[in-house]
Specification:
The protein is mainly α. The protein has 13 helices and five strands. The chain has two domains: 149 residues, no CATH class; 88 residues, no CATH class. It has a three-stranded antiparallel sheet. It is elongated.
Length: 260
Amino acid sequence: MTAISTLDTRTEIETPENVTLTFQLAGPGSRMGAYLIDLVARCVLAWLLSYAFSLLIPVLGVGAPIGLILVGFFLLEWWYGALFEGLWQGQTPGKKFCGLRVIKDAGYPISFYDAVLRNFLRAADILPIGYGVGLICMSTTSRLQRIGDLVAGTMVVRIQQHRFERDASDFAQLDPIPATECARRYAVSERTLDVIEQLLWRRDTLPRRRVEELAGILAEPVARQLGYELDDSDAGQNANIYFLRRVLRTFSSTSEGQAS
């Protein structure tokens, strides 16, 4: 289930855990800024490659260095964006500088295959000149997606800071969930952890009862997955919220106390 506000370019995604996530879509202006930064970076890299390989001309002759330069240009043109987005959490240097990220249209991180697909289809978006097709496609889709995004199932969003992550002392003082308290597979997916984190760092902007309701909806299937028995006596605060915070403490890759 999705919805979009055309005035503030926000899109909402309801996850399988019945939690609604809101993302701020990146418009053509901010995406063009990121593209120009990446273009400058590619030009600088191309110049460095040309200079480095040209030093080999006195040794190897003209043919081999020119061939290497052309291969370098090809890789920069076709693989720069794909490699960065695929290996750097959906960001290129330009996107990182502009605070943008590519994610799946279901709200979770892209795969390397998604990054390659959307970047290779840039050849269609650039037609006939100046990304004309891509701009038309973005203006007619609710999530501002170009052809590459539509085929790969991706969208470009603005990065939002996680207030919960900044509260490092609160996060570190939580007790991890020991494997001995879980009767089933002792693991939680990265996608589920992302959903938990989004709920927690948004809790100050939502009514308390709504947060507790969402925490219950999310905590119960996670507890079932782990084989963990929820107990209202776990904490003085809402037990579901406390449990979700412990799940993040235990399984988050950014936690110093990550369980093994």
